[in-house]
Amino acid sequence: MASPDELGLVNYRQFAEKCTAQINEFYSVESITTKADMLEAKYYVAPANLEQISLNNLELFEVFKKYDRNQNGFLEIHEYIQCLKDSGINLSEAEIVTLALCSDINGDERIDFEEFMIHFQDFLKMVRFQNTLHSAYLEYVAKTTV
């Protein structure tokens, strides 16, 4: 996606721009239509453990606090990405990227504690559902176009 600079920072705007093509393909009319057909035909059934994580709310708070280096109640996007990578939640790179983009609700390029705690579980479930559905979609397309 976007490579960190020598300080380990990722430019938010470059990162978002590089995601555009992937997001457009992910949510294209053809992709969404095929995914809806797959769900209706029961070709894809979502796993039951989509939102299951190994951390409770107190542990999530401790993870957030650890990465809030200046203790101002915010994580910059690059800190949030590192926080997710180090959290032990076992997220894929795509899940981390998508969670980071989705979690900045107000678009200020940082995640506050409220954004983190209130939306984390819902976003995690949505991201995992979309990623598993998209993987099934890619398999389906590969099988049907051969």
For the biggest sheet, the summary is: 2 strands, antiparallel
Mean of residue pLDDT?
Answer: 79
Unreliable spans: none
DSSP E strands, number = 2
Q: What is the helix fraction of residues, given as a range?
A: 55-70%
For the record, the CATH class is Mainly Alpha
Ends: how far apart? 29 Å
The helix/strand order is: HHHEHHEH
**Structural class given helices, strands, pairing?**
mainly alpha
Strand content: under 5%
Fold and architecture overview:
It contains 6 helices and 2 strands; from the N terminus they run H-H-H-E-H-H-E-H. By secondary structure, the chain is mostly helical. It has a single domain, classed as EF-hand (Recoverin, domain 1). A two-stranded antiparallel sheet has the order 1-2. Helix 3 packs across helix 4. The protein is globular and about 55 Å long. The two termini are about 30 Å apart. The mean pLDDT is about 80.
Secondary-structure blueprint of this entry?
Blueprint: H1 12-26, H2 29-40, H3 57-67, E1 74-76, H4 77-86, H5 93-103, E2 110-112, H6 113-144
Antiparallel strand pairs: 1-2
Concise summary:
With 146 residues, this protein is mainly alpha-helical.
Keywords:
Recoverin, domain 1; mainly alpha; 4% strand; two-stranded antiparallel sheet; 62% helix; 2 strands; globular; 146 residues
